Each structure stands twice: as C-alpha cells, then as structure tokens.
C-alpha cells in the first residue's frame, strides 16, 4: 500500500450545496496537493454555472470535468449537469449518461464508489447537506476500502437527510461543522 | 483499491465474452463497466463474476441478459435541443448543396436520436434525398428503433425538446397515441437502414456527409475513442460533418487534426479539406 496520504478529495452535496461549498472551497490554497472532485445535484437542463461561480471565489483552479482528462492537483472539478462523473484507476476522469441513481445524475454514490475503487485508502470522501440518501452507499464504499470519511454535522446542515444517511452507512466517519472542514482537509492533505 | 481478484475476474469475463461471442468490451472505460457488471452480478443473483462467466459460457440465455446490463440505453429525442437547432441553422444550409445525402447515426440506441434527424430533415425538405443509417451493437435497441414506439410519459420531454430545437411543426404530427404509447409514423423509416455494427470491431461501410455519434464514446477508453474517430474520419467525405455528445470532444484524439471545429460549443466538427 502507498501509505495514507490522500490522492484525491471527493465531495457530494445537494440542497444547500452552494452555501456549504462556499465555506470550504475558498479556504483551500492554490497549491492544494490533490484534485477535488465534486458532485452537486443540479437540474440537467442548466448549463453548469458552478465552475464560473466558484472560480470567482477560489484560489484553486475550478472547472467542469471533461471526459478522459487527468484529474490534476490544485484543481476542483464539478460533474457536468446530466452526467455521472467517475474516476478511473489511472486517475483520469470519465463521464457517463447511465440511468439516474436515486433520481440523481450526477450521482454522489457513482463518484464515490469509483473513487473507492481507484484510490482505495488514499481518498477523502465528504458528504454535505442534502435532502436525500445519495452519497451514503458511496461513503460506505470509501470507508470499507480504508479511506477517510467526513460528514457535515447533520444538526447544523441546511438539509440533514444526506449527512444522516451517510452517517448510518459509515458510522466511523468524522462529524464536522462546515467551518471545520477546510482546516481538517489541510491537515490530512499536507502540501 | 478495487479488489485484485475482482479485477482479474472482470478481465476474464470480458475476454470470455469476446472470445465466445465477439462482443468486445475490453477497452471500455473501466469504472462504469465495473459498476454495470456489479449490478448484473447482484441482480442476476451470482456470488461473483466467475460464476457469472460459467453461465455465460454454458447457458444460452445468459448473453442477452448480460448485454442488457452492459449496453445502457439512455436517450431522448432532440436531446440537447441547441445541438439540433444548430444543425438546422448552420449545417442544413451546407447539406442543401448536395443532390444526395448519407447520414450515419452510430450507437442509435432505441432510435430517439435517429427519429430526431429524420423529422428535422423532413421539416427542412432534405428527407427525400437522404439515406439514414442507424447502427448499434444492441439487437434489442435496434429492434426498438425499428418499431418507433415510445411510452407517452416520455413525449412531453420530446415535444419540449423538439420545439426548443426550432421544430417547424408539432411533434404530434408524427405519431399516433395508442395504449399509453406514441407510435411514430412508419413513413419516417422509409429511408432508414438499421444495422448491427460495432465501432470496436467493425469497419467503415460507406461514404457519409454526416456522422452523428453522441454519448457512445464516453464509454470507451482513449484508444478505443481513437479507433472510432478513425472510422468516422475514413467514412466522412471531405467537409463532411461529425456531431458528438455535449460532453465529448476530439481534443485527446490523434485524429484531432483531421477535423476543424464547426460549432465548437455544440461539438459539431467538419472534416478537413485535404
Ligand atoms: C447512452 S446510449 C446513446 C444513445 C444516443 N446516441 C443518444 O445520444 O441519445 C449509448 C449507445 O451506444 C451503444 N454502443 C455501445 N457500444 C457500442 C459499440 N461498440 N458500437 C456501437 N454502438 C455501441 C449502446 O448499445 C447504446 O445504444
């Protein structure tokens, strides 16, 4: 095994995602040592406004993920609306237009399960606010392969269902307040 | 890390599928293939992929069931309406200059994309001079495509898409409703050839003015994408058009130089002159 240093951070969020991510992503430095892959549930017919929106606030590069591109350190990738985002064993990204999972495409579970396969213990999975169970199975997969799991404290979350379900599936996950997550990431992913 | 044994089993299973039945999924993007195979394993009730493989090799009805999982059929008429609007406004004027046309819809699934083109070409007065080729590796999908029957609950999306694509008539002009289904007019198929064709294992079969291959190559790894794009390159006449899915592009392909961006944001390319 290649030790415990993460090779990627994966994040899933739904209702309340923008406010939650706004408390985390701008805190990360331009040279954050791993890629950050994010699924936010947005309607498929919207052009992705997330990347430009966050690029304006963040020091890391922010982009919408493209099929077959390598995931680079220092970069935040959002799944495009209407497509699942998956990561391959060689660290490249792929998109798929498979069926929705739990009424969602992109799906947090799909990203997280592929990240568990690709990175094993070397991945940090974070489930944030949301009003559905997406992300729970995926976080379980990350826990089972020895990765680090973080869940936003459901009590403070804008919508508590997603973090609650994730905690049920992965009881040993760290429960953190939104304001603590960036600092925690900087500790587990040292530059 | 994904289980080493599982990786071995998946590789062997895909090899068996290829050697025995000539369906080649070996160079598909691994992460989504693995996801779909796990679904197949669990829903078909096997403890592991080796058990599934044994049945695949010895049990006649396992192949279609497994293929059902491997070739996911997700489609929509006039999917990404701005793509079809661009075809109407920017590509059709070029196509009008040809006395006869061939259009190839590669990976046509259950026909939604094909009918979108046929309807668009009819509305633009090009249908009569066009031959449409609709190909896929899934027999089930091809059969559904040649039936042209879709559940009525999908029609609202299709209708909205058609309108947003600049449709010149009402989508309801092209189908009749029966028993919860929309049955598309069979005259829409008068000029269509349906055929089994794999972008992985089969060759070029004609010279086209337009190739549409949307949301198929995202399932391939880079080498396989290159092979498919090579086929399109060989198949297209000079200045012929290639339309890809909204999240696909030629950037990583070694054939990228053979094409120019025609409308970049819609992923419509044109084969270069030389
Ligand atoms: C997601 S659907 C895309 C349908 C349609 N083109 C669209 O964009 O709406 C992918 C299709 O590709 C087909 N396919 C998969 N592998 C293929 C191959 N090697 N050659 C041709 N078609 C393939 C599948 O059977 C499926 O019908």
UniProtKB/TrEMBL annotation, chain A:
Q: Which CDD domains match?
A: CheB
> Could you tell me what reaction this enzyme catalyses?
[protein]-L-glutamate 5-O-methyl ester + H2O = L-glutamyl-[protein] + methanol + H(+)
- Main EC class the enzyme belongs to: hydrolase
Q: Which UniProt keywords apply?
A: Chemotaxis, Hydrolase
**Which Enzyme Commission numbers does its entry carry?**
3.1.1.61
Does this entry carry the keyword Kinase? Answer: no
Q: What Pfam families does this protein's entry cite?
A: CheB_methylest
CheB-type methylesterase domain sequence ranges: 1-191
Catalytic machinery residues: 14, 41, 134
User: Which InterPro entries has this protein been placed in?
Assistant: CheB_C, Sig_transdc_resp-reg_Me-estase
Q: Keyword Ribosomal protein: yes or no? A: no
List, alphabetically, the PANTHER family matched.
Answer: PROTEIN-GLUTAMATE METHYLESTERASE/PROTEIN-GLUTAMINE GLUTAMINASE, PROTEIN-GLUTAMATE METHYLESTERASE_PROTEIN-GLUTAMINE GLUTAMINASE
Instruction: Report the protein name in the record.
Output: protein-glutamate methylesterase
TrEMBL record, chain B:
Q: Which Pfam families match?
A: CheR (PF01739), CheR_N (PF03705)
Task: Cite the SMART domains for this sequence.
Answer: MeTrc
Gene3D superfamilies recorded:
Vaccinia Virus protein VP39 (3.40.50.150)
Classification via PROSITE patterns = CHER
Q: Tell me which InterPro entries the record gives.
A: Bact_Chemotaxis_MeTrfase, CheR_C, CheR_MeTrfase, CheR_N, SAM-dependent_MTases_sf
User: Which residue range or ranges hold the CheR-type methyltransferase domain?
Assistant: 1-250
What's the protein name?
Answer: Protein-glutamate O-methyltransferase CheR
Source organism per entry reads Sphingomonas abietis
């Amino acid at each position: 095994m290649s030790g415990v240093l993460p090779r990627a951070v994966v994040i899933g969020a739904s209702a309340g995602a923008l406010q939650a991510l706004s408390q985390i992503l701008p805190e990360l430095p331009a040279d954050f040592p791993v890629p950050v892959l994010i699924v936010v549930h947005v309607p498929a017919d919207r052009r992705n406004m997330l990347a430009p929106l966050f690029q304006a606030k963040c020091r890391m590069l922010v982009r919408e993920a493209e099929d077959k591109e390598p995931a680079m350190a220092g970069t935040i990738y959002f799944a495009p609306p209407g497509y699942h985002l998956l990561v391959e064993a060689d660290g490249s990204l792929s998109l798929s237009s498979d069926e929705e999972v739990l009424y969602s495409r992109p799906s947090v579970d799909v990203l997280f399960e592929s990240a568990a396969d690709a990175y094993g213990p070397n991945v940090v999975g974070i489930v944030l606010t949301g009003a559905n169970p997406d992300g729970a199975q995926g976080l379980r997969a990350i826990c089972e392969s020895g990765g680090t799991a973080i869940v936003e404290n459901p009590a403070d979350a804008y919508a508590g269902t997603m973090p609650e379900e994730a905690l049920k599936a992965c009881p040993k996950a760290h429960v953190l307040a939104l304001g603590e997550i960036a600092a925690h990431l900087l500790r587990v992913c040292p530059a | 890390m994904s289980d080493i044994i599982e990786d071995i089993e998946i590789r062997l299973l895909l090899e068996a599928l290829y050697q025995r039945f000539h369906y080649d999924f070996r160079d598909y993007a691994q992460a989504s293939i693995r996801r779909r195979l796990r679904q197949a394993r669990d829903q078909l009730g096997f403890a592991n992929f080796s058990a599934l493989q044994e049945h695949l090799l010895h049990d006649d009805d396992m192949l279609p069931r497994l293929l059902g999982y491997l070739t996911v059929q997700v489609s929509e008429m006039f999917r990404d309406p701005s793509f079809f609007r661009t075809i109407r406004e920017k590509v059709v004027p070029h196509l009008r200059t040809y006395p006869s046309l061939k259009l190839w819809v590669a990976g046509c699934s259950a026909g939604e994309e094909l009918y979108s083109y046929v309807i668009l070409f009819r509305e633009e007065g090009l249908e009569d001079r066009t031959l449409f080729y609709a190909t896929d590796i899934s027999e089930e999908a091809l059969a559904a495509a040649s039936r042209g029957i879709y559940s009525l609950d999908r029609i609202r999306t299709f209708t909205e898409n058609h309108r947003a694509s600049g449709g010149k008539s009402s989508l309801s002009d092209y189908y009749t409703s029966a028993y919860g289904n929309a049955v598309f007019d069979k005259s829409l198929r008068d000029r269509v050839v349906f055929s089994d064709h794999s972008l992985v294992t089969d060759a070029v079969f004609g010279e086209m003015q337009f190739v549409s291959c949307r949301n198929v190559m995202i399932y391939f790894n880079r080498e396989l994408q290159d092979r498919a794009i090579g086929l399109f390159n060989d198949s297209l006449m000079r200045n012929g058009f290639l339309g890809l899915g909204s999240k696909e592009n030629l950037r990583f392909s070694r054939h990228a130089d053979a094409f120019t961006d025609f409308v970049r944001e819609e992923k419509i390319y044109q084969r270069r002159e030389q």
